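From the pipeline queue, job 12 of 40. The input is one protein chain; the requested action is below.

Action: predict structure.
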Amino acid sequence: NEIGCRVVNPTCTASTSHETVAGVAPVGIAFGNPTNLAGSHKCGVIGGRFSGFKGAEGTHKAAIEFRPPSTGCYVRGTEFNDIGILFIYFDLADFGGLVSSGHRIEGVSVDGCAGYLMYINSRENGAVIDTLSDLSIADCSFRNINKTIHARYVTELQMYECEADEITVDADLTYFIDAANCPSLVFNDNNLNGCGRMMKLDTCIDHRV
């Protein structure tokens, strides 16, 4: 149940030998704990560099996770190089009533991402309500990326003033952002070079582009 904790300018390099699952690197930054269920609140990482957080055989854990019921956590100005996935969010199995909100990913740079840039489904494990709301991704830079953003059941997902370049378009995700059931989605002032198509929206009411 961390409250107000902050880490400044960490330097972290992952190895697949430091994880219990063979060939898979650990999560880089995790807010919250799926065992004690208390969450992290108003905690953050500022600056620093994370490298090599990816699996050896294409099975990746995330460089960043916000786990319910965490609130108001952030990653700002951090570099991520040669990673597997930048950000993953799922609901907790058997605890679908726990929700998470108010998180920020700001001023982050990514150079090299082997899997999805972001994979979000707040009902993946059986929740019947949206368990993630008010997620903001702003002023970020993404280079040498493959699959981009898959988003499901997020209320008020915001992405603005971000840049993406050197995108290798994946046949399974030809849109930069594929969003479904994401009410009040905001996607403004982003500069995307080399993506196949920009957006695919399904049941994203009150969205603003």
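Job complete. The mean pLDDT is 92.
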